[in-house]
Design brief:
The protein contains three helices and seven strands. By secondary structure, it is α+β, with helices and mostly antiparallel strands. The longest helix has 23 residues, at about 15-35.
Length: about 150
């Protein structure tokens, strides 16, 4: 699924996006402020602390970038460290089990993949998103040609 094709649907968590990004900004600002005002720190200490704060902020950013995009030819699953492109024919089902943080996608090769772009902390919004996703899988699955469904 290329970036030039139109999206059918894009799912992104609300809390799962706002909280990590806010924590990244706040923690980076607090550590940089501490590094600059601590009178006992040498220049190397200050630089090392700021680099460490940047690494922590970058890691938090990765948690906030998760999303799931559905297009005419398949899904793009953006998780913390990996982005996976799947054709509709590869995806058999989506399940959000009670107590699980995000749904899993059952794939035709017998494996599963987490879809962190929908997060159960969003409550009813997450349940609606899984229902929409399952409907798209049922409509477009078992074929790689857009619009042909089962």
């Amino acid at each position: 699924m290329s970036g030039s094709q139109p999206l059918l649907v894009r799912w992104r968590p609300v809390r799962g996006r706002i909280v990590p990004h806010a924590l990244a900004v706040l923690s980076f600002a607090a550590v940089v402020l501490a590094a600059l005002v601590m009178p006992t720190f040498q220049l190397a200490d200050r630089v090392a602390l700021i680099i460490l704060a940047g690494a922590v902020a970058a890691a938090l950013y990765l948690f906030g970038r998760c999303e799931l995009r559905a297009g005419p030819t398949g899904l793009i699953v953006v998780n913390v460290l990996r982005t996976t492109q799947l054709d509709w024919a590869e995806v058999l089902d989506a399940r959000l089990e009670p107590g699980e943080p995000w749904p899993t996608l059952d794939l035709a090769d017998g494996t599963t993949i987490a879809a962190m772009g929908i997060q159960s902390t969003d409550g009813e919004r997450a349940r609606r998103a899984v229902t929409e996703l399952r409907a798209l899988i049922a409509q477009r699955g078992e074929t790689s040609e857009p619009g042909l469904g089962r």
